[in-house]
From TrEMBL:
This is Triosephosphate isomerase. InterPro entries: Aldolase_TIM, TIM_sf, Triosephosphate_isomerase. One of its GO terms (biological process) is glyceraldehyde-3-phosphate biosynthetic process. Belongs to the triosephosphate isomerase family. It comes from Candidatus Harrisonbacteria bacterium CG10_big_fil_rev_8_21_14_0_10_49_15. It catalyses: D-glyceraldehyde 3-phosphate = dihydroxyacetone phosphate. It is found in: Cytoplasm.
Length: 248
């Protein structure tokens, strides 16, 4: 399977028209585009080669009295194939591992591929607890799952301190996002081993300030099957060049 470039648009852009324009500029076979919910049908129509993803879902997979929620089945019916679950911006709003586990199960139950996001915050990394934090995040979810086969589940390791939009209490940081991909490989290897000891097979993505400058580096690591890109995926020209970089 080819390595994937995943475009997490977060709560952008402002209008459907802009979303269609951005989708057309991001349309390549190894790309997955994650627009906000309202733009899913229009983006689905605009994409000819890329695959459609959603940024979240509710843990009840079918239907029900859950005002404001969106189900896995509903997403599937508008052409969604991948879904991001447990992104650090949702965890920051209070989403816990147990809820994340239920959402991953809901996705798998209808055949959506979950992108399970894990990653430590700066304080945890500085305290030497990154491995422990990520281990717990991953183990809680995997312990509740039926056996998953290769390609059915992606784990996106996103050190929260390397995400371009993470607010930091002080402007000073002991670690920079540039160092993050190299620092991540060891942790991804650890997770690969952990996952294999419980007979699971997952793919691993890296996320956190991936851009035109470092995309080749990220794609160069054998341990990494692709990248989850936020900020740079909103810049049509830059993202277009990133697609070219990883396709050659
Ligand atoms: P970033 O976001 O590329 O802007 O750091 C990545 C993410 O939050 O998924």
């Amino acid at each position: 399977m080819k390595k994937l470039l995943m475009a997490n648009w977060k709560m952008n852009p402002k209008t459907e028209k802009e979303a269609i324009r951005l989708a057309k500029a991001s349309d390549a076979a190894n790309v997955v585009v994650y627009p906000p919910f309202p733009f899913l049908p229009a983006v689905a129509k605009a994409l000819k080669k890329a695959t459609l993803g959603a940024q979240d879902l509710f843990w009840e997979a079918e239907t029900g009295p859950y005002t404001g929620e969106v189900s896995a089945r509903e997403l599937k019916s508008v052409g969604v194939e991948y879904v991001i679950i447990g992104h650090s911006s949702r965890r920051a709003l209070g989403e816990k591992d147990e809820v994340i586990a239920k959402k991953v199960q809901a996705a798998l139950s209808v055949g959506l591929v979950p992108i399970l996001c894990v990653g430590e915050v700066l304080e945890e990394r500085e305290a030497g607890r990154a491995q422990e934090v990520v281990d717990k995040q991953l183990r809680t979810v995997l312990s509740q799952l039926p056996l998953v086969a290769h390609g059915q589940l992606f784990v996106a390791y996103e050190p929260v301190w390397a995400i371009s939009t993470t607010p930091h209490s002080s402007g000073l940081q002991s670690l920079s996002a540039e160092e993050a991909p190299a620092k991540s490989v060891e942790l991804i290897r650890y997770m690969q081993h952990m996952v294999s000891t419980i007979q699971m097979e997952t793919k691993f993505l890296y996320g956190g300030s991936v851009n035109l400058k470092n995309v080749q580096e990220v794609f160069g690591y054998d341990e990494i099957d692709g990248a989850l890109v936020g900020g740079a995926s909103l810049k049509a020209a830059e993202f277009g060049k990133m697609i070219k970089e990883v396709s050659t």
